[in-house]
Structures are given as C-alpha cells and as structure tokens.
Amino acid sequence: MKRLLSISFLILFTTSIIFFHGGCTRSQNKEIKNVILLIPDGTSLASVSTARWFQRYLNPDETRLNIDPYLCGTILTFSSNAPIGDSAPTTSCYMTGYPSRAGYVSTYPVADPVNDIIPMDSLKAYQPLMTLLEAARIAQHKSTGLVFTCEFPHATPADCSAHSYQRGNYGWIAPQIVHNQIDVVIGGGVSLLNDENRQFLKNEGYGLFLNDINGFRNYPGDKMWALFADKDMAYDIDRNSEQEPSLAEMTKIAINKLSRNKNGFFLMVEGSKIDWAAHANDARAIISDMLAFDEACGEAFRFAESNGETLVVVAPDHGNSGISIGSNKCRGYSSLTKDQLFGDVAQFKTSVSALIQILHNTKPADLRQAVLDLTGITLIDEEFEQLLQTADYNLSSLSNEDRMKGTKLTQEVAKILDRHTCFGFTTTGHTGEEVFLAVYDPRPNKRLTGFHTNVELNHYMRNAMGLEKQFESLTGEYFAKHTDVFKNYTCTIDSLDTNPILTVKNNETTLEVRPNTNIAKLNGTDLKLNSVVIYVDKNNTFYLPQSLKKALN
To answer: Residues 324-374: pLDDT tens digits?
Structure first.
C-alpha cells in the first residue's frame, strides 16, 4: 500500500513538474498580439505627483493611480539636434525609432552635424518614415486606432499616421490620416474634416459621428470616426458629459472594436491637453486631465490583464512647465499642510481657458463675483484693475488708450490664479527632464525597466510586435522616391492649385499620383494603395510604394 502511494505521489509530482514547466514555456513563448501606447502629452513627473496628491486630498482612501503598479523606469526624449523636443519629433521617435527636428512629423530630419545628438544621414533628409501603427496594419494586418482630445491632425496623432516636415500644415496632414485606413479614430476636430474627406470615409464604410455622442456610443460597427468639438475637446474639468465622452470611455470603446480582429491591434491613446494646461501654467487643468488620462490607463491595463496577449506602454513625449509642488512665492512652503497646498486649487471649478471665456462676457460690475464663484478668490483692487486693463477685455470700463497693449486676459488670469496656489512653474514651455515609464508586459522577464531613450522604447515595442526583422525595410518599400521607382519611365510633375500631380507614362498606360491620399489613377480608374503617398516640396519628390511600378507593366 505504501509502495502504491509512493508511486502515485511520484507520478503526481512528476506530472506537476511537467505541467508547471509547460506552463512556463508557453508563457515565455507568448506572442504580443496587441499594443496599446498611452501618451500623456507634456507630462512632467511633478504633474503626476500633483494629480496623485490632489486625488488623495479629495479622497483620502484613494492613494494610488492606475499607472502606479506598472511604473518601471524613465525615458529620455529628445529631438535629433536638441535635448528639449516638441511633440512632433518626440512622439515621432516613439513611432519610427528616429529622433527628428522640431515640427517634423514621422519624417527623417535634415542633418545638423555640429548639434545632432546621434549621427543623422544627410542623404535621407525629408524621408517619410514607417510608423508602428502603419507597420501593424500593412505588415501584420492588425486593426489600428487613435484616441486623443486635441484636433486629429495635431502632432501626436499625426506622428502615428502622417508624414510632414511641418506639423502645422493640416492641409497635408488631415487627408493623410483620413486615407491611412485607420479603423477607429476618436477625438477632436470636426471643423478640420472637410466634405471631401467626410465622403471618402462614408464610401469606405466607416460610421462617421460628428458631435454625436449617442451615435458614437451605440454604433455596432468595427470601423468608426467620431469627432467632437470644432477643434480640441474640452479640458476634463470643463467637459459636458452629455456632449463629449471621457478619455476613458473613448479608450474603452476603441479597445472593444479593435479587439475583434483575430490578428490583434495597435492603439495610441493621448492625454493631449495635459500639455496645453502646462503651457498655460494652469495647475487645475493639469490635475484634472492627468486624472482623466489615468482613468484611460486603467481601462487599458484591465483589458491587458484579462487578455494576456497585450503590451501596454505609458510614457509622456516630453515634460512641460517645470511644475513643482511648492514655490518660493509661498513663505514657509515646505512646511505647508495638505490643506494649505491643495485647498485653494480644489476650489477652482474651471480651467483657465474656460474661465477667460466667461470673463470675456462678464461686465466689470459682476467681475469680482464671477471670479469668486468659479475660483474662491476674492480679487483685491490691484487684481481687479489688472483685469480691466487687459487689451482684449472688450467690456472693460476703461478706454482703449487706458488699457495695456500686449497683455491679454489669459496672461493676467493665469497670474492671479497662480498667486493663490503654492505650485511653482519655471516656464510656459517644454522642459528636458526624463519622463516616467509604465509598462504591462505579459511575457515573464521581458518588461522594459530602468532608464532608456526614446529610440530604445521604439525598439522595445517593435521587437515585442515581431517587427524587428522587417521594420526598417518597410520604409523603403512603401515610401520610395518616385525617381527611383520610375527611373526608366517618363515622369512629369504638374501643380494643380496647391497639390502637385505626378504623371508617369509607359506606352498606352498612364499613372496619375496625388499626394496625401492612398488613391492613384491608372488610365483614369481609381487604384487603391496600401499606404498614403507623400510629396515633399523641399526636394520636389513623391514618396510612394515600390509596387506601383508593376501597374505600368
């Protein structure tokens, strides 16, 4: 009997080892099917701390953010030729693996040998660069999505899905995003989607919802564009929940639709206006939008934990404003209580920008009460006079000659609110410190930890996606110079309005190619491409798929 029990125990023990070992092997070989990249734009680490403390001040039991269990390192972000970058080149680097110049959207920079932080190839200047989002769709047949609160052609969404050396050229960027076959796009910018692009999306089978929150929430289809507000959406503290969804809701709906693809998906979620609030030195808006972003992160982490095949990466693209908890303007600030540090800002009921819109329509006699109701601040005479003297306060009781030229209501309101908090700001611009990194990686011992650069973060994501062997070659395959692709054919470039047309002829076959679209014309018939065509006026070059050459044969 004892012998039988011993044998049974040995079999059970051996089976357990095999099962356990097999389970470990399966986990180690687990492939990443989905990638969710969440970017809190312009978020310094102090912005995160401020939001966490504010949440704790309001709710003492809520001492952690959703990102906290996944914090694992820092990322150094930079432009190709400067340590401090704007959103265009910094997110471009996350997407492409190459740092670039200020204002460049997923485009190889012009070399600056004296200042370049890493060597750049002068022969590749203005080359459009394949992004992770594009590669996921083209090479792996994954679904793709963008979620944001700025307008859709703004730098960070554009970095994922467009190419330009000029981030502000929405005339180029907007149609590129529309034609890049992204499955789900949710954010701001209704006025920037023109009639032609609206019709294109409808023809391609998208559910299109413009300022239609009910349609957005109830649409059962997989492909959807949903835009709210003429340009950027409201700060979360100002958001009307009956008109605009939260970033968390947008993220959840995007994940729900994209996850239906058996091949997986790539999704970028941006907390766009944390950056804008930092530019305005608006502590309350920084806090509210950071907390709203953290709720979106919660949706991504919960999905990833239950799904088991999803990589989630959270990293700002750069810092902004030099915000600090504590400032020399507050005497004895280092000994202030939590009430003294956070009590005043907790009374602010709007962002600075929303407050200004209200004050623009408030008569001087009602100005003090309006400020008191919305901020808890009782204006002293000096502050009241400062508001009356601003150049753009058109209801002011002072004459135009008596109002200060060059000073606007925005500046004065921000200064007044800042005086009534103990937060510090060193600038209204971007800053160059490292940013935080948070990661959920379902593969044991694969999570990126410690200090890394923006280039290394791109390589981590492309490797996790299984793109390391082909990612670089995709740029050459889909963004080849027309002079190389059609070097043995007759090519002409003619301008029509502001858009050039490339015409290529071979005997009786004529190919017409326009920029910023994925539709060419072959003998007058539409030819759908798998990528957008880019034109760069700096070198008079079209960048297009090499496969187009076959159309002429």
So the answer is: 999 999 999 999 999 999 999 999 999 999 999 999 999 999 999 999 999
Domain range annotation of the chain:
34-323+427-477, 325-424, 479-551
Residue 497 structure tokens: 């309005």
Give, in words, the CATH class of 479-551.
alpha beta
Kindly indicate the confidence band of residue 19, based on its pLDDT and cuts at 50, 70 and 90. Answer: very low
Burial class (CB in 10 A: 0-12, 13-18, 19+), 357: middle
C-alpha distances out from residue 550 to 418, 509, 511, 545, 547, Å: 62, 11, 11, 10, 6
Place of tokens 């492909």: 223
Q: Which residue has the tokens 């990194």?
A: 437
CATH 3.40.720.10 given to domain 34-323+427-477: yes
Q: How far is residue 440's CA from residue 308's CA, in Å, rounded to a whole number?
A: 10
CA distance to 77, 313, 500, 507, 551, per residue, from 318 (Å) = 6, 15, 35, 53, 43
Q: Which two tokens stand for residue 171?
A: 């005339």
Contact between 103 and 87 under an 8 Å Cβ cutoff? The reply is no
Measure the CA–CA gap between 232 and 85, rounded to whole angstroms.
22
Of 316, 263, 264, 324, nearest to 290 by C-alpha is 316
Distance CA(273)–CA(246), nearest Å, equals: 13
Asked if residue 510 lies in contact with residue 491, where contact means CB atoms within 8 angstroms, the answer is: no
0.90 cut: is pTM over it?
A: yes
Residues 34 and 266: beta-carbon distance below 8 Å: yes
Between CA 500 and CA 517 the distance in angstroms is: 12
* Amino acid identity for residue 237 in this structure: I
The Cα-based distances of 492 to 100, 201, 408, 538, 548 in angstroms read 30, 30, 50, 17, 16
Q: In this predicted model, what pLDDT tens digit does every residue of 156-192 receive, in sequence order? A: 999 999 999 999 999 999 999 999 999 999 999 999 9
The Cα 137–Cα 183 span in angstroms is 10
| Overall size of the chain counted in residues | 553
Quote the CA–CA distance of 40 and 318 in Å, as a whole number: 9
Q: Are 535 and 526 in contact (CB under 8 A)?
A: no
